[in-house]
Specification:
Elements lengths: L5 E3 L25 E9 L4 E8 L5 E7 L7 E3 L5 E3 L2 H12 L6 H18 L3 E3 H15 L1 H11 L5 H13 L15
Parallel strand pairs: 1-4, 5-7
Antiparallel strand pairs: 2-3, 3-4, 5-6
C-alpha cells in the first residue's frame, strides 16, 4: 500500500494528478484516478500542498510538491564523519519526542518540511548535525513544550536533574503569545 503522504516530483494539472508527470496513487485503493480539491503554497512558495480526492473510493488525501535541489546536503556529525541528510532520521526524532502528545501528523510533517527547506536555503552543501538539532528543538518548543523537553533532554544530553530543571525554568519564563497573537520576531 502506498504511503499516506506522497511527495510528487513533477508539476501536475490542477484537474487530475495524471495530467502530466508521474501519477499519484491513492493510499487506500492504489488507483491513480483522482482530482485536486484545493491547492495552497507554503514555505514561501517552495512547496505546494494539494488536497486530493480519489474518484474511485472517494478517500481524501494530501500531496506535497517541492523542488529538490540537485546538490545533496551532507551532515557533519559530532565525530567529524559525513553522511547524507536523511529526512527520515529527523522525523524519527520528532515522532519520538512527541510520543503520546496531542501533536498532529501535519504539525510533525511541517517541522520536518520547514527544517529541510531552511537547511537547503541556508547551507550550501554541508550542515553540522548540532545545527539540525538546534533548529528542530526551536521548532518543537513552539509546538509542544513537553515534546521540546523530551527532544532537548536527548539533544542537549543533560548531565543531571539540575540542568533539566534549569531548562524547564527557562521555558516557563518565556512569554507565551495569546491564541490569536503572532510573533513579531523570530527566535534564532
Amino acid at each position: 500500500m502506498p504511503p499516506a503522504s506522497i511527495i510528487a516530483k513533477m508539476p501536475r494539472s490542477w484537474e487530475t494528478a495524471t495530467a502530466g508527470g508521474m501519477p499519484v496513487l491513492c493510499p487506500k485503493c492504489g488507483n491513480d484516478n483522482d482530482k485536486v480539491i484545493d491547492s495552497r503554497s507554503s514555505d514561501g512558495g517552495a512547496v505546494i500542498r494539494r488536497r486530493r480526492e480519489c474518484l474511485d473510493c472517494e478517500m481524501r488525501f494530501t500531496t506535497y510538491e517541492q523542488i529538490r535541489s540537485s546538490g545533496r546536503l551532507m551532515v557533519i556529525k559530532k565525530d567529524g564523519s559525513r553522511v547524507l541528510f536523511n529526512r527520515a532520521n529527523v522525523m524519527r526524532g520528532i515522532v519520538a519526542a512527541c510520543g503520546k502528545r496531542p501533536v498532529s501528523e501535519d504539525a510533525k510533517e511541517g517541522v520536518c518540511e520547514g527544517l529541510e527547506a531552511e537547511l537547503q536555503r541556508v547551507f550550501d552543501r554541508e550542515v553540522p548535525s548540532v545545527e539540525i538539532g538546534r533548529r528542530v528543538a526551536s521548532r518543537l518548543r513552539e509546538i509542544d513544550q513537553i515534546a521540546y523537553i523530551r527532544y532537548a533532554s536527548e539533544y542537549y544530553a543533560f548531565r543531571d536533574l539540575e540542568e533539566l530543571a534549569e531548562e524547564v525554568n527557562q521555558l516557563q519564563a518565556r512569554t507565551q503569545p495569546g491564541p490569536n497573537q503572532s510573533s513579531l520576531f523570530e527566535e534564532k
